[in-house]
Amino acid sequence: MNDLESRRAAREARVTAASRTGRHTTEEMAEAAMRRYFAEKAFQERVEQERRQHQKTV
Fold first, then answer.
1. Which of 9, 39, 47, 55 has a Cα at 20 to 30 A from 31?
2. Side-chain half-sphere of 58: how many Cα atoms within 13 Å?
3. Mean pLDDT (whole number) for 17-28
4. What are phi and psi of 32, to 5 degrees?
């Protein structure tokens, strides 16, 4: 997942979380949860990769 997809997923997750009024189907909620999960995974991987690159230069 690239940065643009991560930002889009995070934005969708915020919108979904902010509008939890029972209007969303179970499938929509599951998709939002999966998007949040994968956005978080992508972020963690990017942070870890940056940490490794920093360690190589030190």
1. 47
2. 6
3. 70
4. -60, -40
